[in-house]
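Q: For a teaching session next week I want to show students how multiple molecules come together into a single three-dimensional assembly. I've collected the sequence lines for a complex. Could you give me the predicted structure tokens for the whole thing so I can convert them for display?
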Amino acid sequence: MRRLALTDLDKSVREWFVAEVKRYGCSVKIDQMGNIFAIRRGRNNDVPPIGIGSHLDTQPAGGRYDGILGVQAGLEILKILEETGTETHAPLAVINWTNEEGARFTTGMLSSAVWAGNATLQEAYDHVDSEGLTLKSELERIGFLGDVEASFEKNPLSAHFEYHIEQGPFLEDEEKSVGVVTGVQGMTWLMVNVVGRSQHCGTTPIDRRSDALLAASQMVSRVNEIAWENKGVTTVGVFRSSPQSPGTIPEEATFIVDIEHLSNDTMDQMTVSVRESIEAIAKKHGCTIKIEQTWRSAAVAFDEDCIGAVRDAAILHAGKDGFRELPAGAGHDSVNTSYKCPTSMVFIPSKNGISHHPSEYSTPEHW
Amino acid sequence: MRRLALTDLDKSVREWFVAEVKRYGCSVKIDQMGNIFAIRRGRNNDVPPIGIGSHLDTQPAGGRYDGILGVQAGLEILKILEETGTETHAPLAVINWTNEEGARFTTGMLSSAVWAGNATLQEAYDHVDSEGLTLKSELERIGFLGDVEASFEKNPLSAHFEYHIEQGPFLEDEEKSVGVVTGVQGMTWLMVNVVGRSQHCGTTPIDRRSDALLAASQMVSRVNEIAWENKGVTTVGVFRSSPQSPGTIPEEATFIVDIEHLSNDTMDQMTVSVRESIEAIAKKHGCTIKIEQTWRSAAVAFDEDCIGAVRDAAILHAGKDGFRELPAGAGHDSVNTSYKCPTSMVFIPSKNGISHHPSEYSTPEHW
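A: Of course. Below is the structure for the complete assembly, covering every listed component.
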């Protein structure tokens, strides 16, 4: 699955989603970030709706479950409530959050962040993709630039639940059907730019070089060691060098470091270590560097009552040995909603722990 | 200077070159590789011409001297011979060799190789650039697909001299005006493809990954150590990974290793070490690899008589302390001509030893 945010494919799935929820009697609200709220009325419509949200955008070479399953789960709930004629206490909102992946406009969970006040509308609108197209113009182009203010204050929720694949190995390893998610680990992104000196590769002795790619490679390797030393994770997923010529020592390399940990303190300490290591390696190679922190999402703990609701349901359906509690390793829109309303998540096992890859899979018995 | 082979800019400079040499009374032969031979008749036109050749194509972000100076030197010689009405013993050929840099069609010295029988015409025509355009169709498009067979046998030279910037630091360091080039170091290119497993970066523990970019980074670092250990040079100038997403562990990385040494034996030994190291690192990361040797140009020794002619001229113009003998670190079309006719080269100093970069410079007093 390759459905990058606000592309023609994203437009199609959004139009399908809107048509589906209307079949189940929902009204549709679209906010200034293109977030879609499908509202099903309850007995008490003065109470803000209870949200069931996730995202329909994917990685460049992603799977068919990450995000999508959570929105589909919302549709399934709407369908069953309609078929059984069930009226709920509060209204429900099934939500598709825009640009969760941050694959096209490179801040993850961007539109729930604006809704939660963790990013400004202007910051979000300033994002451009690799072709130079802005997020706002793309929202407009596909017809999903709504007029509802993207904020909790103007468009509140009573709670937010998100159903998601684990994207990791623990549930499968321990043969659990359900994960009760207690919080989310923190994430920091550093954008690193290394500049050396482009020279002819055959004639420049090995001791007289300032090779930006070599320096960057050693940085990538050191960044990995820092993860092992701190029992966290670090990843370099974006990496580019120039010029791309077999006869020329690379002048420049740019990469993004992702640093994640359950403890904000450890994450921040890892970030300092990464910066210091990169500076030391650059110095050794005579390269200049720029390091910019482009994103930081603090580790969060979910709401005890919401965790309890998920735990009770897990015991009911999977038995008391059929689930485990665990923190989420990845960022989710629920991180942002947790700043504004009680939140928790439900995980199901991922085959081989794989996600962000076409082989991503979860069995129907766990859906 | 960014004048990649067979682009519109290359077409312009070729048309300019043809117009210039016609002003000096030359006839023009264009062969099947687009190599341009500007022939000035001598007293004995049964003798094959003495060639003065280099190239007008450049690196993606190159300088204004590499290659260009050698063709300009040929024009300067034509101009002076015409102005002074000088008749030479043999005819002269001022030559522009096609795609020397190998930056667009990624084999360096490609068209002199076909002329020398070191590559077949078909191999050369099969080259495609990064957009999928073939070398042959681009030759045709810019009007430089000639009908002279690209071979020494059908289009012979009596000798080949090439005037070139050193592209290294030695002449400048030792305050010499001229380098008498005794031969060229050998070069081997390996194309390496590393495949790991694309997974979500936040949820995949650090001990359960198969990260192609991390593995490739460690390979780049190890390849550099092999240069130090063997007193040669190695460079990774082309490097790409995918997918490019900050949230995903890279599945694939591809890079080109350039290995160079004055001794063919040591070069081949270094190539074995590079292969073994890459295999070991891939194994450690659970990655699969493909390694393909895409090019090997053996170290060559130039002709003693041609070296002697350059040495005599150097003593005459720079004095016996004004020059030094040295091997060339880079590949040149003269490597190919040396297989077919007596060959040598003349070097002049490069400022700070820099080449393949816009700051490449040599002073007019050395031209």
